[in-house]
Write a structure and sequence with these properties.
Length: about 325
């Protein structure tokens, strides 16, 4: 592939003698994520540092850009999605520049080009949070100046790190992986619940992932929601008419070539005689460990088992 990713951090500023962001940026230098090599830069905490990347982009291009900075008052890493069109410094920057309440361009706020809906944030390293406030200092200025010159889909965002964090390097690499991976394919998975048990179906020898057990379902068709997708798929796969109930949750699973977002929903049989089309066996489960589940379906089976008694009396 041979793509390139730019990761920047900052020098110390204010009363700090170190800056975790610069150290973390350097720690990932030369690492390879999804065939892309990381280039690292430590930026000065001033206008020159804030403009370094936008200047670089005049002659170079990257497949993803992550700016990292220290957020001294944060307890969690923050994924900044917005660069505000304002600078309002509490302390001068490292060049002595002091700015009070001034716009950067006067053209309004700018927004990151990443799609966090595809990221499974809840399961990421060190529990990052989404933020729309990168401050009014050099970090915000840097994101603003970079976003203002990106006019394509190049993923770029700002990662604000707390003073102390268990695995900042791991989180940065994970963010880059999310930026470079294909967008999620939405797939419905039905937890068919009947007489206190839920249905597992084994994929036929002729199917991809043959022999593994899964929840019936499939890809959303144009305009479908989870319920419509499952009613159609379960009819096609099992010849059962079902109604849908509560959502069980969403799981994102990376198969390498494709990333699937599974939308899991309770289903209840209305009518029909089960006939298998893409499966060769079914099993009514009372617990999560009765079959060899495909990929994330094990975790889903655990989630369903945990709530199962609630639904034993459903019609
Ligand atoms: N944090 C500062 C600037 C440099 C850094 O690491 C900020 O949050 O703006």
């Amino acid at each position: 592939m041979g793509g390139r990713v730019l990761v920047t951090g900052f020098e110390p500023f204010g009363t700090h003698t170190t800056n975790v962001s610069g150290d973390v940026a350097l720690s990932v230098e030369q690492s390879v994520v999804r065939g892309h090599q990381i280039e690292s830069l430590v930026l000065s905490v001033d206008k020159e540092g804030a403009m370094k990347t936008s200047n670089l982009l005049e002659t170079k291009s990257y497949d993803a850009i992550v700016h990292i900075g220290l957020a001294e008052n944060s307890t969690h890493p923050r994924i900044e999605l917005r660069a505000k069109d304002i600078l309002d410094f509490r302390i001068p920057d490292n060049s002595g520049r002091m700015i009070s309440n001034k716009t950067i361009s006067g053209n309004g706020d700018l927004f990151s080009t990443i799609n966090v809906d595809d990221w499974d944030i809840e399961r990421m390293i060190d529990s990052p949070v989404i933020s729309n406030d990168a401050g009014e200092y050099i970090c915000n200025e840097t994101l603003y100046r970079t976003l203002s010159v990106i006019n394509d889909e190049t993923p770029c965002f700002f990662l604000h790190l707390p003073l102390q964090q268990a695995d900042a390097k791991g989180l940065v690499l994970q963010c880059i992986d999310r930026m470079l991976r294909p967008s999620c394919l939405d797939v419905g998975a039905g937890a068919i619940i009947h007489e206190g048990k839920f249905l597992a179906a084994r994929r036929s020898p002729s199917e991809k992932h043959a022999g593994w057990w899964e929840f019936p379902g499939g890809k959303f068709e144009e305009g479908e929601d989870t319920s419509q997708c499952l009613i159609r798929e379960i009819k096609e796969e099992l010849e059962l008419d079902v109604s849908t109930g509560k959502s069980v949750g969403k799981w994102i699973f990376d198969h390498g070539d494709v990333v699937v977002r599974l939308h899991v929903m309770e289903c209840f049989i209305l009518s029909g005689e089960m006939k298998l089309h893409v499966h060769d066996r079914v099993h009514w489960c009372e617990g999560p460990n009765e079959v060899d589940w495909l990929g994330p379906d094990q975790e889903i089976a655990e989630a369903i088992s945990a709530r199962l008694p609630l639904h034993q009396n459903h019609p």
